[in-house]
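Progress against Task 2.4 (sequence-to-structure conversion) is shown through the following example record, which the project officer requested during the mid-term review.
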Amino acid sequence: MAWVPCDEPRFLSEQECQDVLALFLEETGERYVESSVRHLPIPAWGGNMKLVDLDLKQPPIEGVLWATPFMDDIVRVAAFVVHSRHQSKGYGAQAWSEFTRHATEAGFGRVQLEVKAANTRAQSFYIQRGLTVQDSLIGYYASGPGYMMRGPLVGNQGKDLHAMGRGEHRV
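Structure tokens generated for the chain above:
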């Protein structure tokens, strides 16, 4: 398994798009349609990745981290999810580290994301990396309340990078 660069969502193959939709449904309980994924304003850049098995010829997508410029020096993580069979193995930490490297090289200093209130593992993952809850989100997720979290991109220095939380973010 490895994180590799990911195309903009609008350029995903039909199968890749279906993989992402299934991943969101299975891991977050959130149901999306193909057009909502394809129309995400996610630009092509090094901070967008997918988790795949490099030993397979056409591997299914087992995780995604998609981010986009937001405002000022903030980059917004629009989606970060890893299939449950690959959680707690350091893949989330690997993706976060690579994402923060690309984001800081692009001139961003802070990160913002949304997470379900019930997803305490993901919240712990982000808190370990310096993010804090900034606001409660009611009606953002179909399945319940959430939080908007924000923090510095360098907040993972000296933290436990092998802790893996289940990322559940609205697309």
